[in-house]
Design brief:
heterodimer; A: 341 residues; alpha+beta; 60s Ribosomal Protein L30, Chain: A; Phosphoribosyl-aminoimidazole Synthetase, Chain A, domain 2; 7-stranded mixed beta sheet; 9 helices
């Protein structure tokens, strides 16, 4: 898109006024980028048809910095919600897209973000069918916030519920953890360190769909350990199912550079945020086959079984350390902070 | 991850644990000085793997935990005056007498979390119309970088930068613990990282005077069990030497360049320790020629004094007299989300280590 012909190079309060400037912004950028029959009606909302049950998930994205190694807030806003819908055992179809922009945002930054939204939506096969743009005064936001709501059709074979989880079930993770959190941390003011760690933001909906096609109700749960990391999600699950969760430190998939960065900052990778990571809890009878299928997929090539559901220590996650000691893994409290020395 | 994976090796660790079992004939109380070591013992489940006769007592080596309450109140006062306060991460959640730095940030205070104090000098350069203060907390480990920030600011002529100093020293704290009438420490695991800077010459007179073995020890599982083995061997033999388990990092004379930087900027002075009280010659203060970098003088806040929370037994925890789970408030009114005292906040605090890494 040629930004010179737009007639404006920053977003200001007028672009959120609902008047001609808003229309200008929508016509020249939003409608042009997302061009589809639903949006082209330019109505207040869209009417869509679904067969059977639908899964709905909403999420707000307030990340800073908005551009980071491996992605930006735009694709994050799509992938995050697409994955949340997929975690319900559904096939994501439609997204709403709402921007809250702080006045003064450069238009080429805005366009870069919008283009990333479009690319990520195309890649995961969802259409943007409704949206909103608001502009707030400088200092009342942080460049740009995005909210997306996703709608998906529940897979006909899916029975995703913690009620189905039984003792002996295996816990499988689709790849390296802590990449996203450490990529963001490495670019935060005051904490910068040189690394090539990239955010793992991506969609996992096709892989989830393939797993449901093949294994149906043998898949008992999907969860994506975003904020709070793997430890927090597993702790929640243990509490919900009133059974124990056992994990093994030696099997936690951790890329070398991420492990080193966590050591330097004194952070526990189990609590660091992920974006393209999900865990699935599956019937032990199909665990090997599930792993085989996942490993053949680009989004699951580093999949590994990290633990299982146990009769012992109900409601608690217990990790066996590399040297054979055991400890309880508690959920994250507050924000993880780098320590002094 | 070289030098880490080798020291997390299951077989090697098991072998040392077996040797401890074979060597030990009676119970010994061994204090690990550093919070990082406490963290390592609990996180790796080592406490449960050790023979019962080894009683680990957790020491005062958590810089956040020993920073007195009034210093946090001083930092809060600066934030409320509109000063940009820069701090290491785990300091910001520690409660002051009324609130924590994090709460003041939420109310609009300009608090920045940094990894290096030199970054604070850059912030001062970029904000010439604002005052910038670095909350210089820590043991001998963080002192060189904090001192360097002052030298750097002086060289660059940055006048709106100063530091709020709360540096504490390990050997005087060990002496205070050993001379306490309730103390029952038989041996120490010395703090590896502190010794990486300072060396371990300072410990020879201490080991001799109090007849305690001091083993300079690292932080990985194999380091910790090896340190314990060295201590048990000495105790069983009746010797009390200073031994260096962490030789891959620590040299007897330490890091001379770092020591020079410290000595240029700081001098030894009395220091108050949270929960323990004032220990003579137990900390660093800025030398006379660097007084204009002293935030307490610059902003006239040296008179802020506040009493400690009476329910918190941090003092007894830090001296190793009680274990965190022997505190009546532990896990009840005092949790990491709502801490009564600093040892429950810092990732190196004994209470937080017990809370986060409860063994089963």
């Amino acid at each position: 898109m040629d930004t010179k012909n737009l007639g404006f190079d920053t977003i200001n309060l007028g672009h959120g006024s609902g008047g001609t400037m808003t229309r200008d912004l929508l016509d020249k950028i939003i409608f042009k980028t997302f061009d589809n029959p639903y949006l082209n009606q330019k109505h207040d909302g869209s009417i869509v048809k679904f067969d059977g049950e639908i899964a709905i998930s909403t999420d707000s994205f307030v990340i800073s910095p908005i551009f980071f190694k491996g992605g930006n807030i735009g694709e994050l806003a799509v992938n995050g919600t697409v994955n949340d819908v997929a975690m319900c055992g559904a096939i994501p179809k439609y997204l709403s897209l709402a921007f809250i922009v702080e006045e003064g945002l450069k238009i080429d930054e805005f366009i870069k973000i919008v283009n990333s939204v479009k690319a990520a939506a195309d890649e995961s096969g969802v259409l943007i069918i409704t949206g909103d743009t608001k502009v707030v005064e400088r200092g009342k936001g942080d460049k740009i916030f995005i909210n997306t709501t996703g709608f998906g059709e529940v897979h006909p074979k899916a029975k995703i519920t913690t009620d189905n989880i039984k003792i002996g079930d295996k816990i499988i993770v689709n790849g390296f953890i802590a990449q996203h959190g450490m990529a963001i941390m490495s670019q935060r003011e005051g904490l910068q360190f040189e690394s090539t760690i990239e955010s793992d933001t991506t969609n996992v909906n096709y892989l989830v769909n393939d797993l449901l096609d093949k294994f149906g109700d043998k898949i008992h749960l999907f969860r994506d350990p975003t904020r709070g990391g793997l430890a927090s999600v597993l702790s929640e699950i243990a509490g919900d199912i009133n059974k124990g969760v056992a994990i093994y430190e030696k099997d936690i998939p951790l890329e070398k550079q991420v492990a080193a960065a966590c050591e330097i900052l004194g952070l526990d990778p189990l609590y660091v945020a992920n974006e393209g990571v999900f865990l699935t809890i599956v019937d032990s009878a199909v665990a090997e086959e599930v792993l085989d299928l996942m490993k053949k997929d680009e989004k699951g090539k580093n999949s590994i079984c990290v633990g299982e559901i146990t009769k012992n220590h109900p409601t608690k996650v217990v990790m066996q350390s590399l040297i054979g000691g055991k400890r309880i893994v508690t959920p994250l409290i507050g924000e993880q902070l780098p320590r002094i020395c | 991850m070289k030098y880490l994976s080798e020291y997390r090796n299951l077989e090697a660790t098991k072998k040392v644990l077996k040797e401890i079992e074979k060597t030990i004939t009676k119970p010994w109380n061994i204090m690990e000085i550093c919070g990082g070591q406490t963290h390592g013992l609990v996180k790796n489940g080592i406490l449960d793997l050790l023979p019962e006769k080894v009683r680990m007592i957790h020491g005062p080596g958590c810089p956040v935990c020993v920073t007195p309450l009034n210093l946090i109140d001083k930092a809060i006062e600066l934030l409320e005056k509109g000063v940009i306060v820069c701090s290491f991460g785990d300091m910001i959640r520690v409660p002051g007498s009324k609130k924590s730095l994090l709460e003041v940030k939420a109310e609009g205070g300009d608090l920045r979390i940094l990894y290096s104090p030199l970054e604070a000098v850059n912030i001062a350069k970029n904000n010439p119309d604002k005052e910038v203060v670095f909350f210089a907390v820590g043991f001998e480990t963080t002192a060189p970088a904090n001192a360097l920030s002052v030298l750097h600011a002086q060289k660059e002529g940055v006048k709106n930068y100063s530091i709020l100093v709360s540096h504490v020293l390990v050997p005087p704290a060990m002496e205070a613990i050993l001379s306490d009438e309730f103390s029952s420490i038989d041996a120490f695991l010395g703090a590896g990282h502190v010794c990486a800077i300072m060396g371990y010459q300072e410990y020879f007179p201490l080991a001799k005077k109090y007849m305690v073995p001091i083993i300079i020890t690292g932080f990985e599982p194999l380091d910790l069990v090896q340190g314990i083995l060295f201590a048990v061997k000495q105790l069983e033999k009746g010797s009390y030497e200073v031994e260096n388990q962490y030789a891959r990092v620590v040299k007897e004379k330490g890091n001379e360049a770092a020591i020079n930087v410290i000595n240029k900027v700081f001098e030894v002075g009395d220091r108050e320790w949270r929960g323990i009280g004032e220990i003579p010659n137990s900390g660093y203060k800025l030398r006379e020629e660097f007084k204009n970098f002293d935030a307490e003088l610059k902003f006239g806040i040296s008179n802020i004094k506040v009493p400690e929370n009476s329910k918190c037994i941090a003092g007894e925890i830090l001296k190793g007299i009680k274990k965190p789970n022997q505190c009546s408030e532990f896990g009840k009114t005092c949790t990491p989300a709502n801490p009564l005292g600093a040892p429950m906040v810092s990732s190196e605090g004994a209470c937080a280590a017990y809370y986060h890494f409860q063994t089963i």
